[in-house]
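User: Teach me something about this protein's shape.
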Amino acid sequence: MDERTWERVREVVAGIPAGHVLGYGDVARHAGIRSARLVGRILAEDGADLPWHRVLRSDGTVAEHLRRRQLAELHAEGVAVGNGRVDMRRHRWEPGAERASTDGSSGCAAGSGTRG
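Assistant: First, the predicted structure itself:
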């Protein structure tokens, strides 16, 4: 894996605003890579300074070994969690959506309409 791939994943995760989440597959797509597992590996090895808690499984569940901490961080940001699961339809971040709501442009990044 090249350094640029690593940085693209870090940039996507760093850009997730408080109160929003992405799935590992969402991060992979926005970073232009195929592997959701690679996103998990990058976050495990080099994600301590990132909002890693905003990255979830596609079904809205959190990492079991970090469950308490991750759920507490999400709750503090106003993310609703029910039965250990985040409502991905409600809290999934779409890059560019904030700009679209303020300037009238579509604000959709290429491929941002896909969900994982």
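Now, about its shape. The helical segments are 3-15, 24-31, 36-46, 67-76, 88-91, 97-103. Strands lie at 22-23, 55-56, 81-82, 85-86. If you'd like, I can walk through any region in more detail.
User: That's plenty for now, thanks!
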